[in-house]
């Protein structure tokens, strides 16, 4: 790859592309947002006046000059668009979820390997303040061996909105939208679970797809509960972690998303700062507070740049992305069949983890 910054193209300029990807890419050293694929050039140019806009990914690839394509389009288009870019020899990042199912995900990994290209999924929540703070405490042994881990994203959106994520379309619904974040974090902490037990439901009036889920990931001597709801007006604790020597509680969530929605530039003063402390209750029930670590989702793109420019080992590996999809697929099977389901991974894939 020639020297200089990576020329990045963003495919899709909806909520994810506009709110997360464009600001984070533009704030990452060694990257330039060179082009956007969108059917609404006026919308893009209102925010990014100097960026080229192409109507299709095929047109972008024909123009050339792009090192990395970031796909932030509706979930059912992830795999076909990624295949098109990989066939052109261009590195790819896909917004979560990786694909619609394991077959698509495996096919993309095979295509990337054949093309000699990087393929990653936007697991940006590894760089959230709440997760970083809890992870540091667990790894420091603050509560001893972890027995139970609870992770929740709770929102109050009782009115169904007219957007593709809330329609009955392939890849729609909360399980595809938010479960990949919670699953990826749990797997980073504890590795591959043995089984997944899930309930996935539609609870709001007029809901067209799932808007609530609760799932249990099981390891010997450990359980992780992940849950999301669109009908939680009071909010909930973001993390509760029970160990043999005490409990960790992180109530407030990472603030980078509201900061981005408010127009804050990543890296500006106050970026990623979290005023909500981590609370630890020790074995005697005494309460201890620790300041939260700052979050910085630019770390995702920094690791991509380090991999492509300097050959650094990727921090978000394709096998990890496939494992998240395995939990998603196992959870769907569990919800249908009412039983605990093992991960649909081969022995070779498990060994690669």
Description:
- There is one protein chain.
- With about 350 residues, this protein is of the alpha/beta class.
- It has 2 domains: about 5-120, Rossmann fold (3-Layer(aba) Sandwich); about 125-295 and about 330-335, Dihydrodipicolinate Reductase, domain 2 (2-Layer Sandwich).
- Helices cover about 35% and strands about 25% of the residues.
- The chain is built from 12 helices and 15 strands.
- Strand 13 and strand 14 form a beta hairpin.
- The longest helix is centred in the C-terminal third of the chain and has 20 residues, at about 320-335.
- The mean pLDDT is about 95.
From the structure above, extract its key features.
alpha/beta; globular; 15 strands; 353 residues; Dihydrodipicolinate Reductase, domain 2; nine-stranded mixed β-sheet; six-stranded parallel β-sheet; single chain; Rossmann fold; 12 helices
Low-confidence stretches: none
Do you know the CATH topology of the largest domain? Answer: Dihydrodipicolinate Reductase, domain 2
Strand order of the largest sheet: 14-13-12-11-7-10-9-8-15
The arrangement of helices and strands along the chain is EHEHEHEHEHEHEHHEEEEEHEEHHEH
CATH architecture of the largest domain: 2-Layer Sandwich
Decide which structural class fits the backbone.
alpha/beta
- Give the strand tally: 15
Computed CA radius of gyration, to the nearest angstrom: 20 Å
Helix amount, in percent? 25-40%
Q: Major sheet, described briefly? A: 9 strands, mixed
Superfamily at the CATH H level of the largest domain?
Dihydrodipicolinate Reductase, domain 2
The gross shape turns out to be globular
Name of the level-1 CATH class of the largest domain: Alpha Beta
Give the count of helical stretches: 12
Q: What's the rounded overall pLDDT mean? A: 96
Distance between the termini: 28 Å
Number of domain modules:
2
Instruction: Report the sheet-strand fraction.
Output: 15-25%
């Amino acid at each position: 790859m020639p020297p200089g910054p990576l020329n990045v193209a963003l495919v899709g300029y909806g909520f994810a592309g506009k709110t997360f990807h464009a600001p984070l890419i533009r704030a990452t050293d060694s990257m330039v947002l060179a082009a956007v694929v969108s059917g609404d050039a006026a919308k893009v140019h209102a925010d990014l006046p100097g960026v080229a806009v192409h109507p299709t990914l095929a047109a972008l690839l024909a123009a050339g000059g792009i090192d990395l394509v970031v796909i932030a389009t509706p979930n059912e288009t992830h795999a076909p668009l990624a295949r098109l870019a990989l066939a052109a020899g261009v590195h790819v990042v896909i917004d979560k979820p990786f694909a619609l199912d394991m077959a698509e995900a495996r096919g993309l990994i095979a295509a990337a390997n054949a093309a000699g290209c990087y393929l990653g999924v936007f697991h940006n929540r590894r760089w959230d303040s709440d997760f970083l703070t809890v992870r540091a405490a667990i790894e420091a042994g603050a509560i001893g061996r972890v027995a139970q881990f609870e992770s929740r994203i709770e929102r109050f959106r009782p009115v169904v909105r007219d957007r593709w994520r809330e329609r009955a379309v392939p890849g729609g619904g909360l399980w595809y939208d938010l479960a990949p974040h919670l699953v990826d974090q749990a797997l980073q902490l504890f590795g591959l679970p043995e089984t997944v037990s899930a309930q996935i439901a539609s609870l709001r009036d007029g809901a067209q797809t799932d808007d609530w889920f609760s799932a249990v990931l099981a390891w010997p001597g450990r359980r992780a509960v992940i849950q999301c709801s669109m009908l939680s007006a009071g909010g909930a604790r973001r993390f509760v972690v029970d160990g043999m020597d005490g409990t960790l509680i992180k109530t407030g969530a990472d603030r980078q998303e509201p900061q981005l929605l408010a127009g804050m530039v990543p890296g500006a003063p106050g970026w990623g700062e979290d005023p909500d402390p981590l609370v630890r209750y020790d074995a005697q029930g005494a309460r201890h507070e620790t300041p939260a670590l700052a979050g910085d989702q630019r770390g995702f793109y920094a690791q991509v740049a380090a991999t492509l420019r300097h050959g650094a080992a990727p921090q978000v590996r394709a096998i990890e992305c496939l494992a998240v999809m395995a939990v998603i697929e196992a959870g769907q099977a569990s919800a249908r069949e009412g039983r605990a389901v093992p991960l649909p991974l081969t022995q070779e894939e498990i060994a690669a983890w």
